[in-house]
Structures are given as C-alpha cells and as structure tokens.
Amino acid sequence: MSDCLFERVERCFVQAETFFKRPFTRPEVSLKLRGQRAGVAHLHENKLRFNLELFEENTEDFLHQTVPHEVAHLVAHQMFGERIAPHGHEWQLIMRGVYELAPLRCHTYAVKRRQVTRYIYHCPCASEFPFSAQRHSLVRQGRRYLCRQCRQTLVFSGETRLE
C-alpha cells in the first residue's frame, strides 16, 4: 500500500517539472515519522518523512493533499532557495499553480494521543504541577522550578499519573 505513496511523490515531482520546465532532485522518502505530524520536508537533506499510521488511516486525503504539500516544500526550496518562509508566498504559489490545491498549513486527521506519565510536584501554597518525564529528569539533575504565586521551590510529591 505504501507503494502508492512513493508513486504519488514521483507524480508530484513530474508535475512540477512539467510546470516549471526544469528538473528537480528526487528526495529520500521515509515512512518513519511518528506523532501528530502527517509529513515533514527536510530541506537541506532533501528528505521527506511521512507518518505511516496517519497515511493508512487517511489514505485518499493523504495522497491528495499531504504528499503534494510536502513535495511543494522541496520544490520551493530548490526553486527559490532557503530564504523563503516555510508556508510563504512561494510555497503557496506552488500549491495553487502546480497542484491546484488550497495551500493548507495543517491537516485535520484524528491523531491518537499516547498516554504519558506525569510527575506531580507541589508547593507550600498547595498548587499542583504535573511535570513531564523530561522536566522531572532535569529536577533530578539539580534544576529548580518555582511556583509563580508563592515563589517557593516545587517539590516532587512521589505521585505519578497517566494522562
């Protein structure tokens, strides 16, 4: 099924080459993107990364909108250089002119959020502060965080919870 994604990337490049009458360097394409983003264009590495899970759940729209969106970033970079805004005028022109698509910045796919552990910190004014694992680790390495109300150091309560 992912073959159709690779084929769509190629068709998008051929479409841009026909429109601009010039060749474009093909990127490395990866299906190892995770999280909330559907796709990412790494301009300097000439690489596209796509979220396989979101692709499988939203195949039709993904092929229609997301793939051209990411290819347009690489085409804009190769055409206009690196001083352009990611979703700026040049990228929008490519989305409208080459692909005849609305230049939408974000997808609307349903994204399953994974459960994360929160480390509960308290202060003397009884406020509760759920810390991420990364912030909790920084505290264990010596970093201090203060309550914005009472300005006292936040202290780990020993409690955790899944969110």
From TrEMBL:
Pfam name, any one: SprT-like
GO molecular function, one term: metallopeptidase activity
Keywords noted in UniProt: Hydrolase, Metalloprotease, Protease
Domain SprT-like intervals: 7-157
Coiled-coil regions listed in the entry: none
InterPro entries found in the cross-reference section: SprT-like_domain
NCBIfam families in alphabetical order: PRK04860.1 (NF003421)
The protein's name in its UniProt record: SprT family zinc-dependent metalloprotease
UniProt organism field: Pseudomonas typographi
